[in-house]
Amino acid sequence: MNDFTLDELNTLVAVFEKAGVSDDGSAEALMFSRIKTAQAERAELESMDFDDCLGGACKL
């Protein structure tokens, strides 16, 4: 699977913001929403300390 890195997702978000994509239900707006969701999930994953998963308490 070819997932985007956090830096790549940050760049995509910046490009969509500079383009002025509004939340109007268009294909562009829907894609921007998906990219922002992926960015938030990737940021959370990269900030996660996997020592937090000891004892089955991991939220993955």
Tell me what the structure shows.
This protein has one domain. The chain contains 2 helices and no strands. The mean pLDDT is 87. By secondary structure, it is mostly helical. The protein is elongated. Helix 1 runs antiparallel to helix 2.
Short descriptors:
60 residues; mainly alpha; 2 helices; 58% helix
Secondary structure elements and pairings:
Elements: H1 6-19, H2 27-47
Helix pairs in contact: 1-2
Number of strands: 0
- Mean pLDDT across the residues is 87
Silhouette? elongated
Q: Strand portion, in percent? A: under 5%
The Rg value, from CA coordinates, equals 15 Å
| Terminal Cα span | 18 Å
Model regions low in confidence, pLDDT < 50 over at least 5 residues: none
**Share of helix, binned:** 55-70%
The figure for the number of domains is 1
Helices and strands, in order, run as HH
User: What count of helical segments does DSSP give?
Assistant: 2
Describe the largest sheet. Answer: none
Quickly give the structural class: mainly alpha
Short description:
Helix content is 58%, strand content 0%. It is an all-alpha fold and 60 residues long.
